[in-house]
Amino acid sequence: MAALVQPTGPAHTRILSIGAARGDVDVPNDDLVGAIDSSDEWIRQRTGIVQRRRASAEVRAIDLAVAAGEEAIERSGLDRSDIDGLIISTISNVAVTPSMASLAAFRLGISPAAAFDISAACAGYVYGVAQADALVRSGACRNVLVIGAEKLSELVDPTDRSISFLLGDGAGAVVVGPSDHTGIGPTVWGSDGEKWDTIRMTSTFEEYRSNPDAVAWPTLRQDGQTVFRWAVWEMAKVARQALAASGVEAGDLAAFIPHQANLRIIDEFAKQLKLPESVIVARDIEMQGNTSAASIPLAMHALREAHPELSGGLALTIGFGAGLVYGAQIVEIP
Ligand SMILES: CC(C)(COP(=O)(O)OP(=O)(O)OC[C@H]1O[C@@H](n2cnc3c(N)ncnc32)[C@H](O)[C@@H]1OP(=O)(O)O)[C@@H](O)C(=O)NCCC(=O)NCCS
Q1: pLDDT tens, 112-121?
Q2: CB distance 169 to 150 below 8 Å
Q3: CA of 234 to the centre of ligand 1 (A)
Q4: pTM, entire model
């Protein structure tokens, strides 16, 4: 009997390029506070958010995904036919099926790339890069486009005080491909389903369908304090594990790019990790809000634009959120 062929890929990968697309409407705190009995001052103090960027009604998450993907592909210098994988991390697809990725691959001109969505909420970008890295190194794909794309303004109830005011719309994209050196460190990732409903929808579609008169259309809610404590204590440990697994120390980092959930969480991380002053900390949340799977690549894109000298430096990225799921990895900034 003939032996099956199993491919092998290159020894190393890195992020070749990055792209971003932000919601086209600036939404300041004052536009939202009336519906939640809050204030601009409260939101700034508790979250650091000054405004969030949201997309106009006619713009869908896939439009943001395609715009970010387009920039990442162009900047990679690759021929579109060399990108044979597309992973979109999103909780904003307008249909349960088909995937956003299949249509995006077509619109980006990279069909017949293997294309699929993943659902890992705010950890989704890190999960996507972990998979892209593994797919390229295994030889299953040559180059993989990873996109985090969200239109979270569609998922919120404007009268909800727990999460609605945090969220924005956008997409970030990276191309992961072969490298002559290690550009993506080991991913430290996991889940804690015991806290599954800490960030949740108000009802399932099944509950809504069976009783539409009594059950409201599902929107997003969270137990903010539980998430806050979990993020600050447990995620700092995960960040330290990612540093150790990669064999680098906080002082080796050029940048710290955590999921943009809350500026107080970001500042507490920086303190607990004892990041030296030299490490630039991403604070994209202030003007963009929390964009779940898009927040890390959006923040990386902004840092890269503001500080071109960061290119080639190491960044600690960490995503965490609904599930609860989390993932961290050290990457070379493209
Ligand atoms: C949501 C979050 C900002 C709330 O801040 P908090 O400091 O935990 O607020 P608390 O729930 O403890 O409430 C404190 C007070 O503010 C009030 N409050 C709660 N939400 C409010 C809002 N949106 N506006 C104004 N006041 C609010 C509460 O009623 C309470 O008032 P009281 O002291 O008179 O009882 C915070 O918990 C958070 O950011 N958590 C992280 C979660 C996250 O970012 N998740 C995204 C997915 S990763």
Answers
A1: 999 999 999 9
A2: yes
A3: 19
A4: 0.97
